[in-house]
Amino acid sequence: MNGRRMLVTVTAGAVLYGGAVAAPAAADGGRRQVTVWVDDMGQRPGGLLQVTVDGLGRLNARQKVIASSPAFAGPARLTEYSTGIAGDHSLLARAAVAMSARPGRYPVRIALDGRTVAKSTVQVVPAKRPEFSVSQTPGSPQRPGAQLGVSYDDLYPGETGRTFTVRSAAFDKPVTLTHDPDGPDWNNPRLFDAVPMVSRRAKDGVYTVTLHAASGHVLARKRITVRASRPGDHDYRGNARGPFFFGSSGSAEEAKNRYRTQPGGTFNVLWKDEFPDAGEETTLTATSPAFQRPVRLERDDSKAADGDDPRYYAPARIRPNLAPGSYPVTVVSHHGRVKKTSQVVVTGTGTDTGTGSTSGPGTGSTTGTKSTTGTPDAGKKKTAAAPDKPDKDDSGHPAVLAGAGVGAAATAGVVFVLWRRRTVR
Questions:
Q1: pTM, whole model, 2 decimals?
Q2: Quick one: DSSP state of residue 196?
Q3: Which of 15, 143, 304, 327 is deepest in the core (most CB within 10 A)?
Q4: What's the CA gap between 398 and 395, in Å, rounded?
Q5: Can you tell me whether residue 242 is helix, strand or coil?
Q6: Which one has a higher pLDDT value, 200 or 134?
Q7: pLDDT digits over 86-99, tens only?
Q8: Alpha-carbon distance 256 to 259, whole Å?
């Protein structure tokens, strides 16, 4: 439920509310207390609001509880919903504010089989012109690979489109905006959004993001700034550590940067990074000539809130016919700026004991260390693709930033926060 809710209590005796005398609330002639909760933060014409009624007890299938108001597009029937509390028979409805409703406060009437059992009011606020929003924080450029929230709110009389698309040279492909009626923005049926990713190949520059209707007509434009991290930025090389290793039945807290195993053995590869590059979490890979295949490292979500650096790990399997020896394991990150290698020792006999060397975390090789011949070259930095030349309407094409290398910029947030979002009760 969004915002504060107006609570109106009605008992068998008449109660004054807002200067009006409320009708007795007892549906069975007894002294039953009925409460009604109505979203009272103000709704625009066309918006939805939630009405909740408690205290009527369990009703039979033939009984009807209706919420009505001059502000509503029509009567809304309340139905019982589960709160998880034994004996709680709360009733709920989502009512639509009429698109023709003028600003002001309107009465709300709750009726059981045509008899008023509770009253409240609802506030209608003025309509707002359609608005196209992009989530970039002023002064904070987007990193290549970062997610960017975009939304279109056209809760306004006369707006009827159902399909909207955003395009930009900063994106790898066009992105369709959608509305989720079961999401946190259920109360705004005309809010469409998406979270596209800025292309990892996007060069530094200013890009235009255009909003298109289904017909292809451009409805709105916004500009975003894209700039990769560089020396002096807090996230330029993050604080990457690893790779470390721990046994299949071991713990990440016991990981070492040197590990002993046998042909065909399986163990976990661990990587830590205080500031991963935007979009890098889905591409971190450990490679080694000893592995059956490269290992895609996955985020350890259990570490999300314990104060430790983000960490990533996944199981690796040694080739079963591998000759004994020491083999490098390499992880490349931060667009090739960080390359670290640790060693795994393969023995001809014995079992995978899960015991690493006594070397502690952080003793792997530093940036730029080369692995031995035969290590798959998975970390070679790709050349960034230059943005396309601007066309006449400048829709979705960049203009190169003047002095783009000056100053440090904070990392743009990955999660798109819509200030209009509200929590459903």
A1: 0.63
A2: P
A3: 143
A4: 9
A5: strand
A6: 134
A7: 666 789 999 999 99
A8: 7
